[in-house]
Amino acid sequence: MTPVPVDVLIRRVDPQVPIPGYAHPGDAGADLVTTEAAELAPGERAVLPTGVSIALPEGYAAFVHPRSGLAARCGVAMVNAPGTIDAGYRGEIKVIVVNLDPRESVRFERYDRVAQMVVQQVEKVRFQEVAELPGSARAEGGFGSTGGHAAVGGTTGGNGYASVGSDREGR
Ligand SMILES: O=c1ccn([C@H]2C[C@H](O)[C@@H](COP(=O)(O)OP(=O)(O)OP(=O)(O)O)O2)c(=O)[nH]1
Ligand SMILES: [Mg+2]
């Protein structure tokens, strides 16, 4: 059964900007465009305006995620991914992009789609301070404690994991 969509109030800061839309019925993210053209040199970042502000219902937040196609084709990432849009935020939604390609500039034209916004329900919690936390299987293991991380300098010894800084061929 198709879930009933949640109404979200939206105001166009730019009168011509398209209302964010889902490209396909099952998509999680509604695409956001930039209302300003921009050219980013390798390593350069920019804060791009999207031309829209929203009023989310209490108990919701929107998360601005990068677009995978832009990342794969052009090396464009979002510095703060995912950007968090608070329910109380009424300002224009902005996207903080960075060009991670080491050689090529990337150019955005006005109304190019630059990011996608996922609206989600979020829990509000009360932090209850205790002297000791309950035990768990993971306990304090973190940051690679289960293995499977890349080896800097590319000496993984063929354990099937990614290597960084080395060509895997010829080893
Ligand atoms: O990619 C983003 C991230 C945030 N925002 C807006 C909405 C959000 O509600 C507000 C604040 O964002 P955040 O809390 O991430 O930034 P902060 O540096 O903690 O700012 P503040 O002190 O205003 O909370 O900025 C955007 O427009 N785009
Ligand atoms: Mg904040």
Automatic annotation (TrEMBL):
Pathway listed: Pyrimidine metabolism; dUMP biosynthesis; dUMP from dCTP (dUTP route): step 2/2
Gly residues bias locations: 141-160
EC number: 3.6.1.23
GO biological process, one term: dUMP biosynthetic process
Residues that bind substrate: 67-69, 80, 84-86
Keyword NADP: no
Keyword Magnesium: yes
An annotated Gene Ontology molecular function: magnesium ion binding
Region span, Disordered: 141-171
Cofactor: Mg(2+)
UniProt catalytic activity: dUTP + H2O = dUMP + diphosphate + H(+)
Superkingdom of the source species: Bacteria
Keywords carried by this UniProt record: Hydrolase, Magnesium, Metal-binding, Nucleotide metabolism
Every dUTPase-like domain range: 17-147
NCBIfam families tied to this protein: dut, PRK00601.1
Assigned protein family: Belongs to the dUTPase family.
Protein task: This enzyme is involved in nucleotide metabolism: it produces dUMP, the immediate precursor of thymidine nucleotides and it decreases the intracellular concentration of dUTP so that uracil cannot be incorporated into DNA.
Entry-linked PANTHER family: DEOXYURIDINE 5'-TRIPHOSPHATE NUCLEOTIDOHYDROLASE
HAMAP family linked: dUTPase_bact
Protein name: Deoxyuridine 5'-triphosphate nucleotidohydrolase
Gene: dut
